[in-house]
Fold these 2 entries.
Entry 1:
Amino acid sequence: MGAEYLKGLWDENPVFRQLLGMCPTLAVTGTVITGLAMGLATTFVLIFSSLVVSSIKKLIPSQVRIASYIVVIASFVTIADQFLKAYFYPISKAMGPYVPLIVVNCIILGRQEAFASKNSVGRSLIDALGMSSGFILALLVLSTIREILGAGTFLGYQVMGSWFKPWIIMILPAGAFLTLGVLLGIALVIERKTKRS
Amino acid sequence: MSLSSRMVIVLTTVGLISGGFLAGVAQLTKERIALNIQKEIEEAIVKVVPGTTQNRKLYEEEDYTIYGGQDELGGTTGYAIQATGIGFQDKITLMFGIDDSLKKIIGLTIIDQKETPGLGAKITDWNAFLQFWTDRDATGPLTLRKPPVSSLEALSSSEINTITGATISSQKILEIVNLSLEKLKKFISEEKIAGAGQNVN
């Protein structure tokens, strides 16, 4: 069980190892708050989709499984979107179209196809929790670096002194690609080092 | 049961359950979402026409709404105009306040924008941009001050400061405001809308 959860954090981390969910990873990590909100919204969708898919997997003919999964996923995404609009309006506005776009996040459909549709409800839940934690972790690392370097703030609070001139490129799309590239490189180096020893 | 009928039944059922569920969720959140949007508009009106406690919609068309503001005693505080126009990246929705005599723009605030983070997005920043919209002369069209100055006092009353690195965003906002202002004056001279303080009904 522990291993099932931990694999999402590192060995099969959706962002650093599987390179899934790149669109939200690049698009909403300009500030920590939007990165965190995206991570939590994705977690909600992933957990509930996995629960539903793993419990109805035997009823669904394999020919229509993808269509059924997408309907289930889209429903939970809509719920997340409505909830954010109703209770966290400013954050929902800052995320723009990226909440509805969770529907096409490959992490979610990927986990349904690769895991929830083949495993028990309990194991699917653990898997979903692990994968979402890995996703949140990646988004937090990325958004922390980008917000501190790009705006000099963390969660909106000034953390850099007045001597610091924000690197505007870090909160632009180019900064997202640069940060992600460097982080992927670091992840690969760590992976090699630990495998060898 | 044949495979194809099973496929139809499963997909239909999944769709119906999801649809029903979502209809319920939409019912639950609808009111709150509408309230959030209304609150945002009201807060913006108070920001650009200070002292307003009540407002009434005087005129509405696509991307252009005029609100009349009143204080507690029923006295007129001015007009708040919400307008949407094309910015540098996408549409910008803003609101600005103008006094009752149409002589002075009291202030401006941005309701929605998707300008470049760190550059054009500074249009929402008080120090970088919004402070330069305080008490502008509304009798003629406003012009852009380029290169920008650092204090409000250095601008003439019909000038607006440019954001360094975001001239187009600044320019577009100026265009939206000038256009909206012209429209407001036309409506009032044609008596299409009543004065802010008067009862429209």
Entry 2:
Amino acid sequence: MSRKHFALSIVMIGVLLVTVSCATPKPQDTPTPVAEAKPTVEEKATAEPTPEAAGPTWDLTDPKYGGTLVFGNSPSCCRDSMDQDKSNHTPCRYLGKHVLETLTNVDPATGTIEPGLATSWEVSEEGREVTFHLREGVKFHDGTPFNAEAVKFNFDRTMSLLPKAAWQFMGGDKFKEIQVIDEYTVKMIYNEPYAGLLVMLSDGALGIDSPAGIEKYGEDYGVKGLVGTGPFMWKEWVKDDHMTFVRNPDYAWASEMFKHQGPAYLEELTCRAVPEFATLAAAVEIGEIHIARAMEQDAVTFMDLEGFRVDLIPKAGTTRYYMMNVEAAPTDEFAVREAVLYAIDKQAIIDTPRYSGIGEPGVAPLPSNMVPGGVDEFKDLTYPYDPEKSKVLLEEAGWVDTDGDGIREKDGQPLYVKFVGSGQSDLLFIEPAEGMLREVGFDVEIVVLDQNAWMEAGTTGNFNLLTMSDSGYEGPTLLWNFYRSGAPYAFTRLKDEDLDKYLDLAATTLDPDERWGYVKDAMKIIVKNAATVDVMELYYPFIVNDKVQDLFFAELGYPYVYDTWIEK
Amino acid sequence: MTRYILNRLIQTVPVVLGVSILIFSMLHLVPGDPVMVMFAETGASGRQIEEVRERLGLNDPLPVQFIHYLGRVLRGDLGRSLWGERNVSEMIQEAFPSTLELTIAGMGLAILIGLLLGIVAALYHNSWIDNVTMVLALAWVSMPGFWVGLLLIFLFAVSLRLLPIGGGGSFEQLIMPAIALGIRAAALIARMTRSALLEVMGEDYIRTARAKGLAERMVVARHALKNAFIPVITVVGLQFGSLLGGTVITETVFARPGIGRIAVLALQSKDFPVAQGIVLFISLVYVFVNLVIDILYAYVDPRIHYQ
């Protein structure tokens, strides 16, 4: 083609590209108005409250009633099924908690266990039996009554199906049986004391389903329907698009822990599945979604945006760490592991764009929000950032750079470490450390694998450093799963008799002070052995539309919107 | 012709069998334990992991697992997902319509735009119109799908507030994904159409038609286009497969439901039944589409005669 035509074409493309890239998202002046309030609550509640629901009454003309709240979740609202006995996916649990209520609740501010569908309970002397007194006058969404038979049915089912998260939360092999004592009393019997029971009973995975509902939907239970006693009822689920719940107009038995009683304020609750974080942030900005858990770097842009706020919620789980393989050279040498710890500048990692300063340097395998009283005592035990000390330790251990290439050697072997992670997010978490380790003389190979290969690397020990990301509210159980020698996920391969002893004791000791004493002893051993680099305590940034009021975050770090209302 | 079609349908059996063996072996032989991935977030005891593996039949030797799997497939049972124990056939049935809708929309757009641009470029050969369209086509082919998708979202959904950001179900929600998906195919079809048409236009019989006094429009429409279509149909057929694969990215960026998304998750976590089921299903779709394309040839080109 002629030069003139070519030039013209290039100019046109250029103009097109410039136009499109200038169309960057602008801060909005007026957020899209949220759905108008619907007065259906007043209409439905003209009937007299049932006699059993006598007690506090509620003012249904309160302007807080009404509106639709939209969550955005990545990658999906729930993978495969909302049947809590079959699912292993975390979002299914916290969404499920709006429809299915739990026997207990946890007050995340204090960590105390509050009543839920069980109003009180007693633990037997040896700790193997727990008797629960159930709340009376509660009905499932299908009208059937909530009682001891229903609770027994639920947990018998959990323990007989394929053992997933719910089975584990109930105590797994420790569980022996559950007995109906009378219409509103059940007794759970264990083979040995299960210390985590009361806390785990508050997880959505152990929510109570209607036995009649399970029978009605059969194989489709959890896909086409979910029947519980909660403030919201199942409406529909278009898989991978959205899941919608509607207000339960008969809800009259909220736990005393919450701010109000009676039906939820919100008319409808929807979860939209948006896998791509950029799309999610865009949807919040234009008002299509009200709440979303975002990446830290997206969250930072919303902090200054009018009409939005960012709620930083401490993640429930272990500290975000690099596990070190104590059986693979060179990390099998204690001095080398110490050198790694001194070489890492935790605050610098938190300040990279990926985290944009959101997070706190870690000091122990469990973060401060997971340990009653915090983890201040570990601040003295933790290794500070001191690259010079790191170099000295390596020199003294015989690792010297003999050929001037920046990498230390010993006995002809280079100081090479394999650093394994999974996914883009892990890569951004690992990369800053590579530079820090190279500075003190390590040769670092970063290997980013898909989930399977990453798990395989952990299982076979084909790594020196490995990132892990766990979540859960029961700290002692997490520690046991990830550090007890012989446990499938104890990838550090640290073998210490005392560590195992303390972890086993923590699992069965019911007295909280004694129990947490063991947990801290266990953590001290892990830290003293330099088995992990506890890099940071994570905060989940939730970008929230300012119209959302009284947003409550349950202990798992996810929203529970019974008390939540929307400003008109 | 019917004998030919029947023959082709019978040939699908060994194809499907071959694909099953391939995907089964690939999934199982690649390192990784789906049960370990399942409990990676919460952790689990050795006992729990063993029991899940045992009850899902994952401890059986591979040939035994394959025989069971094949037996079920022949009975039409694709099994249950490892993660939520959902019926795989149902999962595919639920998700496929959305993917099909997107693929057809993308293909339709691609054919429309591609043909139009290609014909115009060929008819105004060597003019500025020709050059501009071909440079545009080059640009489109070079742009990755997810990037185009995100750009469209920021332009039409965030800045101009003209279209919804994502999701499935309505026509407005289909527009941007269809564009993002179809744009590369449109470029390829445009280029193919242009060169095919140019080649045909240079043939003797075209010159004869003109000499006979036929209007240029008739020359193009009645004689040239029909013959130029044959290579174009080939490209369309090949692009269909590419588009079906491209829905994975488009569905992710636009948060549309579909089998693309399910497939990615299943492959990432080695959810065998789901991954195997989807691959099997897609290969059947592909075989069917190829058959349709081949039959289309027979109608367009009378020289082709099947036995």
